[in-house]
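Ligand-bound model needed. threonylcarbamoyladenylate.
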Amino acid sequence: MKNLSKAVEILRAGGLVAFPTETVYGLGADAKNPAAVAKIFSVKGRPADHPVIVHLAAFSELSEWVVDDISFDAKKLAAAFWPGPLTLIFKKNPGISALLTGGQDTIGIRIPHHPVALELLREFGGGLAAPSANRFGHISPTTAAAVYEELGDSVDLILEGGQCEVGLESTILDVSSDVISILRPGMIGAKQIEKILGKNISLKQKKSPRVSGSLESHYAPRTKTILLSADEIKNYLSREKKLVVIAISEMKLSDVEYFQMSSSPEKYAHDLYFILREFDKKNFDEIIIEKVPDFVEWDAVRDRLQRAAG
Ligand code: TXA
Ligand code: MG
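Prediction:
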């Protein structure tokens, strides 16, 4: 692939390359080049205390980045889910730049499951720091076109990889201590993780800017977004406002735009950011989204919807 060698050249020279992963598109830079990593923060408008995830091609590279006391649990999780939509937080090696870790003593690592991302990582031959390729606080991009809408020409190259299969950011799991906890829910859910570990984990998300996705308003459209139950939606609709309703339930609504989402959490997750982005461009006064079911399968979607609605 012609673009791939160009991408590697740009990364080696300290430039920025946006690339597809199975979750969302990432804004990549050479993780060992502080000036390149600093560019990520300025292009995204992201505060310096928000750590970034380092992406690797293979488990064997892990020892370059993390302290050499990886727990058996962490190894089991990596074996089960990598490459895949899971980020593991480890104690960082002393030499690792504070820029990557937001000044913390831990580092987030992920091996993505996307042919373009893996080929890029292998060709580059090192770690790529890559947050989602959007402006800080906005919706993550799930297509190359969406990356361009977000970041325009401030990225040196955008690699095309189609629409992301998962569509929501990775599950983030803290394995840096004995108490394993989910810092950000994703499509790899607590049940799957507990099945691999053979024990319960903590679902309580830690408060603090450790995970920027844990801010109350994040992953948000620019249009005011409101979450309501199906009944609340029927009472809410007003003729004075230009509204769009995004719902799983079939609804007969007049005077408003209505979009029906899948009742499968996987398909819903796959479509959500793409749909939100499209409606965000259409100058609605408000985006109304029907609340999703209370089941654990919906944890990641529910989390992102709550943040989208601030
Ligand atoms: O699916 C994903 O994870 C995508 C793709 C591109 O891999 N990346 C992504 O990156 O969502 P970002 O930066 O938008 O979100 C990563 C989250 C941030 O909220 C960050 O604070 C958290 O990971 N994070 C990174 N390192 C951490 C650490 N050492 N401790 C706690 N949280 C960390
Ligand atoms: Mg992000």
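The longest strand covers residues 86-91.
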